[in-house]
Amino acid sequence: MSTRGISLLLFSDTHIGFDHPLTNREVKHRKRGPDFFQNFKKIIDEAITRKVDYVVHCGDVFETKKVPAFLVDQTYAEFLRLANANISLIIVPGNHERSALPTSLFLNHPNIYIFNSPTNFLFPDLSFSGFPYYRGDIRSLFSEYRRKMESGLHDDHFNILCVHHAIDGVKAGRQFFEFRNRKDTLAIDDLPGKYDLILSGHIHKYQVMYASNAERKIPIIYSGSTERTMFDEIEETKGYHIFEIKGKKYSHQFHPIYTRPMYQIDLKSEQVEVEQLKDYLSIEMMNMDKDAIVQIAADNEQLLYKLSKLKTEGFFLPTMNITLSGFSSLHRTRAD
Known about the structure:
Helix 1 packs parallel to helix 2. The model is unreliable at 332-336 (pLDDT under 50). The chain is built from six helices and 19 strands. It has 336 residues and is α/β, with parallel strands linked by helices. A six-stranded mixed sheet has the order 4-3-2-1-15-16, with helices on one face. The protein has a six-stranded mixed sheet with strand order 5-6-7-12-14-13, with helices on one face. The longest helix is centred in the N-terminal third of the chain and has 18 residues, at 33-50.
């Protein structure tokens, strides 16, 4: 293997299209979609500035399989910037894009590699194995996938497995829910195989785990998302990763990226009357950032409709995103 070091940038779960305007026209109420795209673009900028050799995106490029065509083009234009900078881009299609990226001539660039099936991409001193998200019993199928991929690997390469799946022991959310022994979850005992490093998306919380056998202990690194898609991620730091690989060893550093702060106001446990609501909210929001993302939860019908009216009347700062929680449970109660 060459003594020259190899640099790699990892990111995942960009969810382009999340709460994004359906056109390029300005909208009356602020949406979060541009935040997702801007963080995506900042990471592309960082890869080009650092002149890394490879960029790996571990899945869920898009929020859905059907995002507006203009947004697909804008996203792929950023991928082309990478490719034209002579940076190889490796992509694992995720579950949100239904295991396949929207088609485009942009993806035919020779520096763009997409795992459309279980396969390997071989480079000097470095190999990437991977497959698109499998919606089904991946636990039973993975051994077959692994045999197929490992048969094409070189032992003297630094071999990386790229996936978009939960692996036994990975945790998610504020309650640290642990995935284990599920059909949609990879068995950690089936790893590491011939791999020197395992990279994954799908779980939005950055974390490091280890797969081991009798001979060695191999890191599993979950990139985490680049933005918070739900309030369960309120305390999570988002970012991207830089790897420096030399021989069979590597160094790794996580780089945080700015995400707008989230806050929650829970009116369920507070004795707030409708006529007191504006004053109560004004005090609660006094020390919040002007670009805050705020969730207000209530289970009182009058409070919920007053909150909805305040939102329509422009009571909240236009730079904020306000989410009201409680209408669905209210409707369920009525149905009962």
